[in-house]
C-alpha cells in the first residue's frame, strides 16, 4: 500500500508545531492516498524514523518521503537522506522514494505580494523591500533567492528590492537592514521567504520592534504559511512524485 511521509523542519515553539499540523491536515485532505503521516527533521516528534514506523504498521509498503521545504539546501541534500538511509536498514522490504522541495515558482511570488498587501500599508515610491531567506552553505540557495528577488521586482514594479539571509549566506539580514536604515528610504518592508512561523519569525519581529522608533516605517510581513498557493504547490509536488515513481 502507498504511504506518504511529510517531513517538516520542526521547532521548539508550540505555535510553529500547531501551524505545521494544521498545514498537513489541509494538504492531506486533498491527496487521495490512504496512508499519510507527518514528522519532523529535528526539535520535535515524531521524527522520521517514527513517522516511517507508523506508516509501516498501517501496511505501507511503498513510502514517498516529501520534504516540506521551499528550496534545495542542506536539509534536502544531506540531513533527510541520511535519516532515510538509517531507516532503510530496518525495513529492507519497503520501497522508499524521495520527493523534491517546491523550488522557484511563480505562484509563490504571488504569495509574497499577497503578504505585502495584507499589511494594509500603502507602498511608497521610496520603499525598500528586503527579501529575507534562511541561508545555506549551498550556492544554489543564494541563486534561487536572488532569482526570486529579481522576479519580484518585475511583478511589483519596485526598484529597491534586495535579497539577504538570516544565516551562513551573505549578505546578512542585519547588515542589509543597517544599510537600508542609513539610506533615504522612509519605509522598509521585511518580507520573509519562510514557510512557517517559529524562531526566525520571532527574531524578525524583535528586530522590527527594535527599530520601530528609528524615524522610518518598518513593516514585517507574515510568513508564507497556509496560503492556498502553498497548499496547491505541495499537493502538486506530491502527485508529481507519485506519477514519476509509478
Please sum up the structure shown.
The protein is α/β, with parallel strands linked by helices and 246 residues long. The protein has eight helices and eight strands; from the N terminus they run βαβαβαβαβαβαβαβα. Helix 5 (139-156) links the parallel strand 5 (128-133) and strand 6 (161-165).
Describe this structure in words.
The chain is α/β, with parallel strands linked by helices. The chain is 45% helix and 18% strand. The strands form 2 sheets. A 4-stranded parallel beta sheet has the order 2-1-3-4, with helices on both faces. It has a 4-stranded parallel beta sheet with strand order 6-5-7-8, with helices on both faces. α1 links the parallel β1 and β2. The longest helix is centred in the middle third of the chain and has 18 residues.
Largest sheet: 4 strands, parallel
Q: Please mark out the parts with pLDDT under 50 across 5 or more consecutive residues, or reply none.
A: none
Which structural class fits the helix and strand makeup? alpha/beta
Tell me the span between the first and last alpha carbons. Answer: 13 Å
The overall pLDDT average reads 95
> Reading side by side through the largest sheet, how are the strands ordered?
2-1-3-4
Beta-strand proportion: 15-25%
Q: Tally the beta strands.
A: 8
**Overall body shape:** elongated
SSE arrangement, N to C = EHEHEHEHEHEHEHEH
Q: What does the radius of gyration come to?
A: 19 Å
State the helix count: 8
Helix residue percentage: 40-55%
